[in-house]
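Allow me, if you will, to draw on your knowledge of protein folds for a short while. I have a record of one protein: its chain in single-letter code and its fold written as C-alpha cells. I should value your view on which stretches of the chain appear to form regular backbone elements. Thank you for your consideration; the sequence and its C-alpha cells are set out here:
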Amino acid sequence: MFHQVGIHRDDQHCQCFLWNNGHSGATPQVYVMQVMTFGASCSPSCAQFVKNTNAKRFAREFPVAVNAIVHDHYVDDMLSSVETEREAIELAMNVREIHAQGGFELRGWRSNSKNVQAALSEQEVDEKNLNVISQFSTEKVLGMWWNSSNDTFTFKLPTKPGEDLLSGRCVPTKREVVRVLSIFDPLGLLANVLMYLKILIQEVWRSGIGWDDAITSTQLEKWRTWLGVIEKVETVSVPRCYRLTTSSSMQTDVQLHIFVDARVNGTAAVAYLRFEENDRIECAFVAAKTRVAPNKLTSIPRLELQAAVIGVRLARTVVESHRININKRLFWTDARDVLCWLHSDHRRFSPFVGFRVAEILENTELPEWRWVPTKLNPADDRTKWQRIPNLSPNSRWIRGQQFIWEKQTEWPEMPTHIGTTLEQKHSVGLHCSSASVIDCEKFSTWMRLLRHTAWLKRYIRNLKAKRDGAPLSLGELTQEELLAAESYLHRIAQESVYLEEIAVLTKAINYDDAYKYRLPKSSPIYQLSPYLDNFDVLRMRGRTGACEFTEPGASCPIILPRNHHVTELIVRSVHWRYHHLNHETVVNELQQKYRIPKLRRVCYKIRVTCQTCKNRLARPDAPFMADLPPARLAAFTRPFSYTGVDYFGPIAVHIEIAHSLNTDSCILALRNFMALRGTPLELFSDQGTNFVGADRELKEAYQRIDQNLLFKEFTTSNTKWSFIPPGSPHMGGS
C-alpha cells in the first residue's frame, strides 16, 4: 500500500539513501524514494489520509462503500459485515472500484459465504495466499484466527516458548512465564483462561526472583495446572456472528448485558448482546475484560466497585464500536455493597468509593443496575479457579447465563434490603471554644492596645509573683515589657491565619527534623521560607543579616496577615506618625520591620478610612447652575433683539464708545447702537454689581448713572429694559 502513494517532489529529499548496486567496495550513490517507505513513522498516517481522501470523492455515488473504507479498514485490511450475499458482493465490488481509482488493489478476499467467495475470486490471478497453516478455511485476520467455513474465531498456541516448556517437563523461568502471555486475545474470549496466568505472573513478580531464575515449587504446581487447561485452547470456537435466528429489523429488541465480579486476586467484566424478536431470543458473547488486583491489599467490596467501573467502561466501548442500535443496557453484580453505594449519596463515603460511584452514575442510570446471585454470574468464572473452566461452545462463558435466554419475568429479582455502612465517613463532633484575654477589636490605636496588653501581662505576672512570694513589678512600663507585649500581639495575629504553618514549624523544632516537617507548597507563605524566632513569632528568612547598616528586624521581617485588626492598627500608627502624608514613606517604614502581603493595598485602605485624610481631601460641591433665561434661548428672531448692556465685558458683540460714565453718555451710546443695529426688544443690565474688583472711582462713577432715567428713556411699547439679579452675569450674556 505504501508504494502506491507518491511523495511530492519537494519532500523527496527526506527519503535519501545510499546504494552501491550490490558491488562490494564500490562508492555508493545517493538515491531517493519517490513513494512512501516501510519503517517511516509518517507512512501509516499519510497512507490512511490518502486512502480516505480518495474514497470521499465517491461519497455521493457509493456512500456505503465509502463508509466501509473510512471506518472498516485497518491499514490495508478490510473487515466488514452485511446482512445478505448480494450486499456483500456489491459492497466488495464498489470498494475495489474506489480503491482502483486511487491506484490501490484489494486482493485475498475471504468470506464465510461460498457464493461471495466465488464471485470475488473470479478476477484474481496468482492470488496471494495468506494462510500460515495447511487448512485453507482458517486464516489470521488482524492477529486473530478466523475459520471462514463455520464463521468462528479459534486460537493457536504460540510456538516460540517450545514444546518442553508447554509440556511441563522443565521448570520455567520468570522470563519464560511472561513470554507465554503473548497470546493475542483483544476481545477477551480466553479471559477465563488467561486470568489465571496473570495472577500467577503477579505472584512470581512479588516473589522477587530474577528474570532468569526458576519459579518456586508452589508456583510450578500452579503453572502445570494452567498448562493442563491451555492445551484445550485450540478447541475453543466462538461464533463471529451475533444473530442466527433473529433479524436486524427495528422490531428486534437489542439489549447489552454486562456481568461484573471480583475476588481477592482480581476483577472481571463480561458483555453479552441479547436479541429478542417476537418469541425468539438469542444471546452472543461480545467482549470481556480482566484486571488483577493491586499488589497493595484491597478489600473485596472495593474490588467489586472497581469491577463495576470496568464494566461501565467496557459497555461504553462496546456501544461506541458497534453499528447495532442497542435499546437497553443492564449491569449485573452480585455485590450488595455496590448496589447500596449506587443508591446512596456518594458524598457520605470515602474518596475511593465516592469518585468511582460518581463515574458510574455519570455514565449509567440507577434502573440499569441489577442484582444476580453469585452462582448465576458468568463473570465469576474469571475471578476464581475452583474447577477447570469449561471451554466448550455451550458453556455459560461463551453462551451466556441461561436466565438471559428467558423472558424477563424469569430474571433474578432485586433484594429488598441492600443497606451497608462500609466505607462511610465517620464524623466526630468536636466543639472547641477559645476566648482571648484581650479583644483587639475594641482598640482603635496601636499604642493603646500595646500598653493595655503590657499592663495586663504585668498584672498576671504580679499575681504569680505574689503567689510565689517573689518581688512585684512596679512603676512605669519598661522596654522589655513592651517588647513582650508586642510579640504577644504578633502571635495573636499570626495564629488566626497561619496556625497550620506554625504547628508544622513547631514540630520541626521539637523533633529536630526540618526536612520531614516542611510546609506544603500550597501554603501562602511557602515561598517566604518562614521560621519561628526565640519569641515564637513567625518571621521571613532573609539573607542580609550580616549587614551593619540595616535595622535588626529588616533582614528577617515579621510576617503579618493583611486582614487582621492588629495589622491595621500598626499600619494606622505609622500613617499617623507621618501626619497622613508620604504614602511611599509609610510603606518603606513598614517594610523595615514587617512582611505584609499586598502592603500598598492595606495602606490605601487605611488612607481611605482615615477621617483626617477625608477632611483634608474633601472639596465643596459646586452648586448647580439655574436654567438660562428665555431671552438667551430665543430662536428665529432678529439679531440684537435681546441685548445685554455692560461696560467693558469680557465678550462683546457690539462695542460702542461712551465718552463718560454719566447717564447722558450712556443714552447717547445706546442711541448710536440702535441706529446701527435696530431697536432691541429687551435690554439687560446688571445694575453695576458686576464691577467687583474695579477701583472705587469706577464704581462711584457708575453709581452716578441715573438708572431710572435710562429705564424711562428706553422702555417703550417695542423695547423693554430689564435688570438682572446681582451675581448672575450669565443672564446678561457676559
